[in-house]
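pasting for ref
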Amino acid sequence: MAKKGKNYLEAAKLFDRTAAYDMNEALEIVKKASKAKFDETVEVAFRLGVDPRKNDQQIRGAVVLPHGTGKTQRVLVFAKGEKAKEAEAAGADFVGDDELVTKIQQGWFEFDVVVATPDMMGTVGKLGRVLGPKGLMPNPKTGTVTFEVEKAVKEIKAGKIEYRTDKAGNIHAPIGKVSFDSVKLEENLRALVDALVKAKPAAAKGTYMKNITVSSTMGPGVKVNTLKLTAPAN
């Protein structure tokens, strides 16, 4: 196990590692525990009661965080003709077709999200082996394979994030920066929780959200009271 740094150990003294806190209190602890000299990302980890080995229990989707992530996403769009012009007008950073495929095959990856129109997927498919492992392959489930390229680009620029279960049934996602005020972090986390609740597979049995932990990039994880956070609003 990696040795924890001095700042991490000091931050861990600020709270009870075994306790589960209300969402607002947990996020306040994360902000106070941030000791890095840069604006750390606030991340959330969900342990879900699903078996991702089964197709009907895999969870994948996307949600637009109300206040974004604090990071400007570089969007690459595979499109031609009018759809290419639409992507450029919407603020896409890179737009093209075959020439971008060649560039990526040569090792270029100066982008964060890839969007493609359905008619371009035959071309984009050539990049499956390089985009897939990086989680960059466009997918209809996350709204990145679409003819509505203007909407897709604007949502990504506004703070849309993708989520998916890993092999153990966990989901990790950013919900903002330490510099965000607590209300913005709370609203972003709530939006993600609501999206995951709606995405609950019908085949999932027992407790769905088993554990929720929030942390900063370099800080310790703080447990969130799962029952309170997932309880229906009055």
